[in-house]
Amino acid sequence: MRELTTDPRAGRRTAISISGLAALVAALLIGIRVGAVPVSMGDIWHVFSAPAGNEAYQIIYNIRVPRVLTGALTGINLALAGCILQGVLRNPLADPGIIGVSAGAGLAAMAVMILWPGLTALVPAVAFAGALMAAGIVFMLSWDRGVQPLRLILAGVALAAFFGGGMSGLMVFHSDKVQGAVNWLAGGFQGRSWDHVSMILPYSCIGIVGALLSYRYLNALQLGDDIAKGLGIKVETARFSLVALAALLAASAVSVAGLLGFVGLIIPHITRMLVGSDFEYLLPCAAVLGATLVVAADTVARTVFSPVEVPVGIFMAFLGAPFFIFLLQRGMRR
Amino acid sequence: MSQHSNRITFGMIGLLLVVSILFLLKGQAQPADNQAPARYQVTDSAGRQVEIPRRPQRVIVLNASNLELFYAVGGTVVGRPTTEALPEAVKAAVRQVPAIGITPNPNIEQIVALRPDLILGVNMPFHHNLIPVLNKAGIPILLQALENYQQIIDTLHFYGELTGQPEQAAAVIAGIEARYETVVKNTKNHPAPKVVIVWGSPESFHMATARSFTGDLVKRLGAVNVADAGDHSGGQMGYVPLSMEYVAKQNPDKIFLITHSPDEKTNGKIRNDLVNHPAWRGLKAVATNQVHLLPYNLFAVNPGTQVGEALTVLAGFLYPEVTQP
C-alpha cells in the first residue's frame, strides 16, 4: 500500500498564500501612497526617517497609516469570524451579523449618535458593548446543553429584527439627525485614527492565536457532532468557545468600521474556492484576503470620487457582489 | 511545503500586528508646532472647550450655513464645502476656494493639506468623527449648531470677533433685529392662528416643533403650533412623526409645507397629495386655501442672514391682514 505523503493541492495553496501576501503588501503601500492629496515616496520615507510636523507628515502618519492598518485589521477579524461561524454553524449563509453583533452594535451606536451627539467619541466603545451584549443574548436564547447551531441562527435572526426595529424607530423619530449616522451604517474608515488601531489590535491578536489553536476543532466540527465526539472533542465546549471568539472578532471590527457587511460572508467562500475547506489553510488565507480586500476597496473608495469619499461598505457591495456571483457560477460549472 | 507556506502566512499576519503595535507605541511622540501667540478658549455648541487663535488666518468651513454667516461679517476661507445651498453673492465669492467635499463627508486629507488654523463644522456625528485626527494635527475645530433665531445672532456676533470686524457684525445683526422687531410689532395684537408645519417627502411626513428652526420662528411670531401641544418628548425633538388623525382633530388654521427638494413639480405633487387626502379635505386650512409651500431656499436649510426674509414670508402667511393692507 502506497502512502500519499503530499497533498496535491499543496502547490496551489503555496502559490495562493504567496500571491495573497504580495497583494496585501501592495495594497498597504498603495493605500499609503495615494489619496486626495498627492504625496511622494520621499515624503513617506521622511515620515519614518525624519518626522517633521508638516502636512505630508500629518497626512501620511496621522491619517493614511492608521487608516490602512485599521482596514487591514478589520478585514482580518471579519474574515476569521466569518470562517469560524460558517464552520461551526455548518451554514454557508452564516456571517458575523448572524450572531447579533451588527444589530446590537448598530442600535447602540445609533442611539449615541442621534440622542447624545456630543458623545460621538464613545461610539466605538458603545458599539463594541452593544455587539457583545447582543451576542450574549443570542447565546442565552440558543443555549440548550451547549450552543445549538439552528437555535443560534434563529435567535440571531429574531434579535436582529428586534434591534433593527429599534434602529428604524430612532430614524423615524429623529429624521432630521439621521444624516449623521448614515456613513457609520454603511461601514467605512473615514477619519480613523490611531485610537481605532489600538482598539481593534488586541482582538486581532486574540483572533490569530485563537485561529492557530482551533483549526483542528473546526475541521472536526465540520464532519458533524457524532464524528467530532468520536474524535474525542467536547463538542459543546468547542462550539461555545469558537462562537465566542467569532463574536469578539466581529464586535471589534464593527466598533471601528461600522456596519461593514459582505467581508465576513464572502471572503470565507472565496478562500474556500481557492484553497479548499481545510481550516488549517482556510483561516490564514482568509485573513490575508480579507485584509487585502478591505484595504484595496477602501483605497479605491476614497480616491475615485475625490474629494468626496464613498463609504467602503457601499463600494464593496457594488463591486464585490457581482464578482462573487461570477466566482460562484464558475465554481458551480466545475 | 504547504505546512511551510501556512506558517509563512501566519507569520506575515503576525508581522502586520507587530508593525501596528510598534506604530502605536511610537505614536506618542508628537512633533510640536502651531505655537501661535494669541489663543483663547471658547465653548462650542457641543459643549467642548476649544483653544482657538484670536484672529484665525486660514479658516475652513464645512457647511453652507456657517459659511454664509462667516462671509456676512467679512470673513474669508481657505476651504469650503461642496454645496449649492448658498446665496449667489457667497457662491461667487468662494468659487475659487478649494472644495473639501460635501458637509456630511468632508475629506480630511484635503483639510489637513490646506493647513487651516481653525475649522468651523456642525454639531453632528460626522464632524465629531474628525476630532481625533484633527487633535493630533493640532487643528482646532468648533462644532456650531444653528437651530434657532438666537443662535444666528450669537454666531454672527462671535464670527465678527473672529474676523476682527465686530462693527460689520453689529451692523448685520442690527439689520436683522430691526426687521425682526418690525415684523413682530406689526403682528403682535392679532389673534394667534393655529398652524402645523409639515416637513417631508411624499413617503414620509413629520411635524416641526419649536425646537426646529421654522418652529422657532413661528413661535416668535405668536402662532400656536399644534406639534408643540402634542409633543410629549420633553421638547427634545425638532421634528416628530406626523399623525394625520391628530392634525385632523386639532384642525389647524394654516398648514405650512417644507420639502426636501427644490423641484417645483415634486413640491406641487406633495402639496396636492396632502390637500386631497380624504382625512384632510375637510380641514379648515384646506377649505380656506391656507396650505402654503414655504420657499426651499429659506426654509429647507438654515437661512443664515436671510432670516429676516424668512420671518417676513412666514408673517405674510400667518397674518395676511397685516402685511397686505
For this entry, give a set of tags.
heterodimer, A: 334 residues, mainly alpha, ABC transporter involved in vitamin B12 uptake, BtuC, 13 helices, B: alpha/beta, Rossmann fold, six-stranded mixed β-sheet
Structural account:
Chain A: Belongs to the binding-protein-dependent transport system permease family. FecCD subfamily. Chain A: Keywords: Cell membrane, Membrane, Transmembrane, Transmembrane helix, Transport. Chain A: It holds the Pfam family FecCD. Chain A: The chain crosses the membrane at residues 21-48, 68-89, 96-116, 122-141, 153-173, 200-219, 240-267, 310-328. Chain A: It is found in: Cell membrane. The complex is a heterodimer of chains A (334) and B (325). Chain A has a single domain, classed as ABC transporter involved in vitamin B12 uptake, BtuC. Helix content of chain A is 76%, strand content 0%. Chain A has helices spanning 10-33, 41-49, 55-89, 101-115, 123-142, 149-173, 179-186, 194-222, 225-230, 235-257, 263-275, 279-303, 312-333. In chain A, helix 1 (10-33) runs antiparallel to helix 3, helix 3 packs across helix 11 (263-275) and helix 5 runs antiparallel to helix 10 (235-257). In chain B, the strands form three sheets. In chain B, strands 6, 7, 8, 9, 10 and 11 form a six-stranded mixed sheet that branches. A three-stranded parallel sheet of chain B has the order 3-4-5. Chain B is globular, with a radius of gyration of 25 Å. Chain B has 17 helices and eleven strands. Chain B has 325 residues and is α/β, with parallel strands linked by helices. Mean pLDDT of chain B is 85; it is low at 31-36. Chain B has helices at residues 2-26, 64-72, 88-93, 108-113, 125-128, 131-137, 149-163, 166-187, 213-220, 226-229, 244-250, 264-275, 278-281, 284-287, 296-299, 307-318, 320-323; strands spanning 39-43, 49-53, 59-61, 118-122, 141-144, 194-201, 204-208, 224-225, 239-241, 254-259, 291-293. In chain B, strand 6 and strand 7 (204-208) form a beta hairpin. In chain B, 44% of the residues are buried. Chains A and B meet through helix 1, helix 3, helix 7, helix 8 and helix 12 of A and helix 1, helix 4, helix 5, helix 6 and strand 9 of B.
